[in-house]
Amino acid sequence: MVNFQKLKNIILSNNSFLITTHVNPDADAIGSEIAFYQLLNALGKKSFIINHSETPYNLKFLDVDNVIRQFNLDDHADLFNKVDVLVALDFNRVDRTVSMIKNFQQSKAIKICIDHHQDPERFVDYEFIDTEYSATGEIIFNLISETKIVSLTKEIAEPIYAAIMTDTGSFRFERTTAKLHRKIATLLETGINPTEIYDKIYDQSKFSKIKLLGRALNSVELFADGKIAYMIITQKDFEEFGAIESDTENFVNYNLSIENVVLGLLFIELKNGFKISFRSKGNIPVNKLAAEFGGGGHTNAAGARFFEHKMTEEIINSILSAAKKYVK
Questions:
Q1: 119 contact partners, CB below 8 Å, separation of at least 6
Q2: Nearest to 183 by CA among 147, 130, 144
Q3: What CATH number is given to the structural domain containing 285?
Q4: pLDDT at position 107
Q5: Which of 68-72, 133-137, 302-306 shows the lowest per-residue confidence on average (mean pLDDT)?
Q6: Average pLDDT, stretch 211-217?
């Protein structure tokens, strides 16, 4: 259970905030940041959004006022000590801040985490975490609806809608309930356009992304008697098509569209290390699988990132072998 009154009190009793989210942010991350920023702005608070990663091009429409900044040590290091509160949104492990980790850890500011992922790492002063929520954006919605801290405006509703819509797989995942749809109705009543939001996020892909998707689909292999499907994307693939890491968002889900497949993996070679996305059907806990390799997430959606290891065939095979245990 999230103590919304406590969260409200922290917000009202402080004046300056630095908001951040995880590396390679998705729509829940960016949407939650913008919604929280707009909430603070409505209260007359001073706030900044500083991220390790650049905002993906299909999510920049959420940042209407162009307030999100990519972290630069010379420009932003002092901010971590000047603000009253550091706000970690949509992540629960401090290493997900990557280049900002030392600044975050060493800051004397109050640290809070608002999140919905499992197995949080204790790295903040106050946690507002509940895995029963469909998205971090939904937690922010409830903060507003339960405490009346501000009015729900269109400027706040749009990024919250984007956060929830994407993290529920366009309202088809497990956390999609009647109660959630009533919240969505409240968001729509502010005048936001769900058709436009979906179009901007999913139907305005760059040509490079589509070409990369083709390469990823061509790489699909089956494992464990056809119960596991996996894709591999290399740095060479990125360079060939001029694509970027954020272009791979949702690629892993195509694995689960293959008949009899109940667990899907996507291996992505990065300039520094590699990452893995895990997806599953039913009660297969890929968050536990990801945890075996230092990652985490939800029961059916998780990830792991390696900064100091190369993506070798040996490592891929070891991860596939580990995954096989979960589909027996």
A1: 92, 287, 291, 296
A2: 144
A3: 3.10.310.30
A4: 97
A5: 302-306
A6: 98
